[in-house]
Amino acid sequence: MLLNSLNDFWSGFHLGALIDAYIPLLLWTGVGLIFSRFAPQNASKILGVALYWVGVPWQLFVLARHTEFSDTPYIPYVAIASLIISWLLALIGWQFAKQEGSDRSSLGSFILATMLGNTGFVGLTLTNSLTSANYADWAVLYSITSNVAGNYGIAVFIASYFGKSEIKPPWWKLLLDVATVPSLWAFAIGWYTRPIALPAAIESGLDVGVWVTIAFALSLVGLRLGKIEQWTSIKPAAIAAFLRVAIVPLAIGLVATAFGLRHDPRLILTLMSGTPTGLSVLILAEVYNLDRDLLISTIAFSFVGIIVMLPVWIICFG
């Protein structure tokens, strides 16, 4: 049976689709790496803040306006369950990952690196390439829920709590940080303005802006990677990446199987829950002064990890 699965996998595997998915990743990350040689020290800070306040809100605004949802009522619950599972695993994994000199910022960064996946770019690209278009709404709704509830909801609370100072901020300040996240407001505006038709040129410009945001976000990865002088966070980054791309999707895949899901629906949930650590952690790192080295190292390890794990998920849950 395993041999048949392997044969089916390789006979139906479209390597070109994966290559197309990773070309932008390598291209724009490379641009950031090259630019890091000449960029001033605060360049990543400026770019991260710009993405936080403009780029990502733009992306969620467009996604909210242009997506139609079918019968996918429980997908948001799966996405939120994945965030909770990741959070719990991060708290357990930190007992093995922490090292001498680790502080509150390192713990917060480890939790975010484990929790937040790149569902908006890598996740949607992989599901579009490897699953049927009939279930495209599943992946999009998962991505939106993950971004709104996780990347710029729960994540802001965690980043604010662990990143600003050694002094614990008051609870109302944490709630205020979450309530004022620009991406949440952008998503709400995009959703409630769906009935309002915009000129075709404007709609086209909004779509172009999404790709510009992706390019700048990937360049931020290269920029931060190029600024790392010492890889001091290899151990916690490797553990966080392992939890992110191996343990969390395995748990979601097994739960989906237990609930009777098979083939594309199950594979979509597995892939979306096991995407590499999201670029949003770098934006949060710049805004809330988190452990940037740990986060960028986890992104690097998790991208390598998804290349290794992708055939496993297709064979086991595809």
Short précis:
This protein has 318 residues and is mostly helical. The protein is built from 14 helices and no strands.
Q: Care to describe what's here?
A:
By secondary structure, the protein is mainly α. The chain contains 14 helices and no strands. Helix 3 (43-66) packs antiparallel against helix 10 (200-227). The longest helix has 28 residues, at 136-163. The mean pLDDT is 82.
Count of alpha/pi helices? 14
Categorize the overall geometry: globular
**How would you state the average pLDDT, rounded?**
82
Biggest sheet details:
none
Give, in order, the helices and strands.
HHHHHHHHHHHHHH
Share in helix: over 70%
Number of strands: 0
Radius of gyration based on Cα positions: 19 Å
Classify the beta-strand content into a percent band. under 5%
Structural class: mainly alpha
Low-confidence stretches: none
Distance between the termini: 14 Å
List keywords for this structure.
single chain, 318 residues, mainly alpha, 79% helix
Topology diagram in text:
Elements: H1 2-12, H2 15-36, H3 43-66, H4 75-97, H5 104-115, H6 119-130, H7 136-163, H8 171-179, H9 182-192, H10 200-227, H11 234-258, H12 263-273, H13 280-288, H14 292-317
Helix pairs in contact: 1-14, 2-6, 2-10, 3-9, 3-10, 3-13, 4-5, 4-7, 4-11, 5-7, 5-11, 5-14, 6-7, 6-12, 7-8, 7-12, 7-13, 11-12, 11-14, 12-14
